Amino acid sequence: MSQFCSEQPVGSVPGVEDAPAGLLVIENFLSQAQCEIWQQDFSDSPGEPATVKILDSATATMKKVRDKQRITEVLELGPIAADVAKTVALAYRDAIVPFFGARLDTFSAPSVLKYRPGGKYDAHSDSEYWDPERCRWIKSIDRDYSLLLYVNDDYEGGALHFPNFKLKLQPKCGMLVAFPSDHRYLHAAEPLVRGERFVVVSWAKDKQS
Fold it and tell me: How far apart are CA 46 and CA 67, in angstroms?
């Protein structure tokens, strides 16, 4: 895969030699105290099942559906919503922009995902879908960079898997992960075995795209 990611910066993953280009991992981006406050808030927050976007062949448009490839919940942000939004903005400013040399146009408001035992998200691209008729990936969402912030690690399972790079990362409390949103960076949340897994997600659009 390295030749297909040659325009990306050298990967930075603690403990991983020859990390995939374009993959940024920062441990302890969130403090332990921040993680504990967020986790408590998220544990008490109501949620609803997450959806996926699929191509409706009858109308040739994308539609949101519940699907067994994504078993997780999207939580409502409570009293700490402002702190989460501020932290995500700082993550873009202090980590994503300098690493990628990006000129961001916009970024999405953060979402919080909660995984329970059996929860998962199969390998997917954050901005593209596979069109079997045309045999190619089609960009359907204006996303150029993906951001993940892991809030806890007191669970079993739930590894972050990049199948194209044959790389699995076990999330840690406070860890930031960022990468381009296209299909080269297919990724999956492996099934959770025990506990609850919380992750804050956001996506950004570059001015050049």
Answer: 20
